[in-house]
Amino acid sequence: FDLDNPELDVRIDTIEFSDVNTRTALLSKNNMFALLCLKTANEGGAICRVDPREVNPAVQLYDDPEKAVEWYSKSLRTSRENGWNVVYDGLPLEG
Fold first, then answer.
1. pLDDT (tens digit, 9 = 90+) per residue, 59-91?
2. Does 30 reside within a domain?
3. What residues make up the domain containing 57?
4. pTM (2 decimals)?
């Protein structure tokens, strides 16, 4: 396997991310806490859910940042309907 072979050149596109926005919601229910996090940029977005009843966090990726925001809002609304209280919803807390 010859890595210097020009026939094996692979073009890798680099994406410049701009307009990166982050939002975090802390939810509580029956002495449990959950996190719902949103990160968007010009090229898409991601939602991460940390549910104490699940072993691992769940991440959903979106090509369209507006769809990520839409599903984040829907997830918060559904959580409220299912008895979760939104303790905090805003920028991630640091420090």
1. 999 999 999 999 999 999 999 999 999 999 998
2. yes
3. 21-86
4. 0.76
Which of left, alpha, beta for 83 (phi over 0: left; psi -120 to 50: alpha)?
A: left
The tens digit of pLDDT for each residue in 35-67 reads 999 999 988 999 999 999 999 999 999 999 999
The count of structural domains within the chain is 1
Nearest CA to 35 among 93, 61, 95? 93
Domain-located, residue 71 = yes
Measure the CA angle with vertex 68, ends 92 and 12; round to 5°: 95
Q: DSSP letters of 37-94?
A: EEEEETTEEEEEEE-TTSSS-EEEEESSHHHHHHHHHHHHHHHHHTT-EEEEEESPP-
Yes or no: say if 39 and 46 are a contact pair by the CB < 8 Å rule.
Answer: yes
How far apart, in whole angstroms, are the C-alpha atoms of residue 95 and residue 89? 17
